Amino acid sequence: MERTVIKGIIAALLIMLLSGIALDAQDLHTLRLMWESGQYDEIVPLLANFKPKDKAESTEADYLFASSLCRMHGNEAKSDGRTYLKLLLKYGDLNAKNRRTVSEELNNCGSDRPAISITINYPQPTAGISSAKMLYDSRFSEMSNVPAKIKKILPDKSFWGDSIYSPDSVPMPGLLDNRLYSKTEINDATEFFRRAFPNYDQFGDSTFYILSQRDLSQSQKNSMLEILHQFQSYFIRKYDLEIPEFLITVFLTNNKDELRLLCDFLYGLEVSPMAIGYSCSKYYSMVAVSTGTSISRTSFHELFHVVSDNTPGMVPAWLSEGVASIYEWPSIETTDIRGKDDWRGDVLRAAPARIPFLSELLTMNWGDFNCEDKNFRLDCQSVNYAMARYFMMYLDSENKLAEFYKRIVSVDIGIVEMHPDDFSIKILEDTYDGKPIGRIETDFRQWLYDQYHISIRSL
Length: 459
Description:
Layout: H1 10-18, H2 28-36, H3 40-49, H4 55-69, H5 75-91, H6 96-108, E1 132-136, E2 148-150, H7 186-196, E3 201-204, E4 208-212, H8 218-239, E5 248-253, H9 256-267, E6 269-271, E7 275-280, E8 285-289, H10 298-309, H11 317-326, E9 330-332, E10 337-339, H12 343-350, H13 358-361, H14 366-369, H15 378-397, H16 401-409, H17 413-418, H18 423-431, H19 437-452
Helix pairs in contact: 3-4, 4-5, 5-6, 8-10, 10-11, 11-15, 12-15, 16-18
């Protein structure tokens, strides 16, 4: 849901307009200062119009918006503030500390207590977060720590001059800060990346800039660009996503070790040795292992994240990862792209961890989905990812996926008010014209068995 001007703040908007105060969106730093000084009535319409630069800004703006509503006059504004905080807890890409802050703010909503400050830095040290997504090739291995660790917090602004990448490079997190190129700046992008990555074969157009460790023929380069365009156009058309504003950079490595070095150099992250793909939507950038001369399927998964993450709206973990995972093993038809059975089906067949019911999956927040309470165990994560992927494939087979996705992302706040704990389930049932979740689950599991001989049970 975007920060639309909802029912409880119409009066405040009118007051602002009549008083002659400009309603132009400000930078987040200015809005944060206004919030800290208690200018809640003034900040709400500004936040409603605010266009964030990345997911971190979007999440913080959502929090400032909700907490400001909680401190406005009138019961409707406070009610809307509570509802928005509940939505943020369920859909928002928050780590454990920030979820505790939002929960405390929810308890304080409507009271005289001052609003609680929040600090959001992306990438967060968790798996599958909105501005930094990761794909693994391991299925059942347990991990003793989280899949990505922050080595350095990326600065807001940095300039690394003539930094040149090599396998023994000193990590330069922030290399891509201020290196977002518009579609008309392909020549500038080419100059910068050729200087920074002289050992990579490089090519691109006004939409994608690809850097490959392997030398490629012109026909292979053309094929890579063509299929990336095909997938991006499909995502935009099917899910009503926005056309990316900046050039998307795609790094293709020969192996997982090189991927880890690149993530260290580019993002300041120590990623799992099992990672085969990584995307950082803040930089319109992704890294993928590509062992052949064609684009890797991992790139399609990461591309969905880059495009969807830069479209307004909160997307829950199970929807973001479930949909993206469809395209890591796609069946490409003339006008459609569907998912095929892949290794995630083997995860469900082997069931290395408890398989959740749909009623559980659809109410998971990001921490639940990534098994935060189980120390981010990969066997637990793998089951959740697999269940999400195959349920999204089922919805697609029923021609319900696009509708359901759009309903979730643009969720009506009234549904959240009426069903605060299970509004995602209500949206699914409405997508099926009132069909109850139990029947949907039964039909889904029957489809799993009929199509892929996957028989699952939740204990």
